[in-house]
Amino acid sequence: MESLRILGVDPGLARLGFGIIERGPGDSLHHVAHGCIETGADTPLPERLRHIFQQLTELCRTHRPAVMAVEELFFSRNTTTAFTVGQARGVALLAGAEAGLAVMEYTPMQVKQAVTGYGRADKRQVQEMVRLLLRLTSVPKPDDAADALAVAIAHAHAGRIGELEARLAAGKRTGWVWERGRFR
Prior knowledge:
Its EC number is 3.1.21.10. It catalyses: Endonucleolytic cleavage at a junction such as a reciprocal single-stranded crossover between two homologous DNA duplexes (Holliday junction). This protein is α/β, with parallel strands linked by helices. It has helices at 45-63, 79-98, 108-116, 123-133, 143-169; strands spanning 4-10, 15-23, 29-38, 67-71, 102-106, 178-179, 182-183. It has a 5-stranded mixed sheet. Strand 1 and strand 2 (15-23) form a beta hairpin.
């Protein structure tokens, strides 16, 4: 299997987290980069959105991911926050589309399920699994970057499951064996 480079995005206007991983042979996951794109609250909204777009475009140009995985929004109370984060999310989706990437979206529950095996895992559990899956010495910081890495991992796992489902639907043997918590 060829390697697949994935850019995970945790949307935010003040701080947008990004995480880049590579899914390699044997379903191995490798950390490439992570960090945050920050914008100041005193900067006009259009300038903040442009900065996010430019930085994501540069990340795509530098790291050449094939896929952008973006976390869907889930806000139950604060509509103002939902709108501003939604604008940053829209800019991220546009940056991915403009770079020619496949853009996929995942709910927070899907991310937690894919990373920890439990859709209601807490933030610390998700971050610790990110550390373990990517074989890092410490939990990635800041939290937004760790969340973005989790979104990228969710896509890496979802892609492998999708391949398995497609082969099964076509009536083909998979040749895959479940071993040590993953298909081989």
